[in-house]
Request: fold
Amino acid sequence: MRLLAASILFLSGVLASAAAVAAPATEDSSWFEPLRLGASVGAGSDASMARLEARWNLKRDLWSTDSKSVRIRLGLEASIGGWNPHGANSNLMGDIGFTPIFRVQGAGSSGPFAEIGAGAHLLTRSHISDTKVFSSAFQFGDRVAVGYRFGDALDSELAVRFQHYSNAGIKQPNPGINYYLLQYSARF
Reply:
């Protein structure tokens, strides 16, 4: 389990490094915007969660209108967090994840955005509580979010997110778990 978690983090670092090295030689040859760091907190009916996130957004749009009033962007997020399950016989547990995220946003440094993403997560255990047991510690994390970019000196963002974890039916039982999260992030 630790080997898989280390592999996920290593792979995300390799992807970011390889993209930066393979970028075309221009005035600014990096493929990614500066690192964005954030934190999320939230809860669901089965547990509460807190998480730290590091995100690399591609500089170029995947698609945009001619006026750039609507743009689709891609980001890669690595996260580490803790779950505090509700119920008897439940203790704090860990979550390491890697998620590609598609974002729809407008032009300019401020304004609303919407996101959708699906990634891989590794939990420190599959027994969440007496009433919630997953069949494996490997889970997929699907998300949808809406937020606002403030365009300030830190390029701050605030978002609300719905996040669902399940193993997509790979192994039973597959009860899934849902969270509603508040996320803040800034670019460094």
The radius of gyration is 18 Å. The longest strand covers residues 71-85. The domain at 32-187 is CATH 2.40.160.20 (Porin).
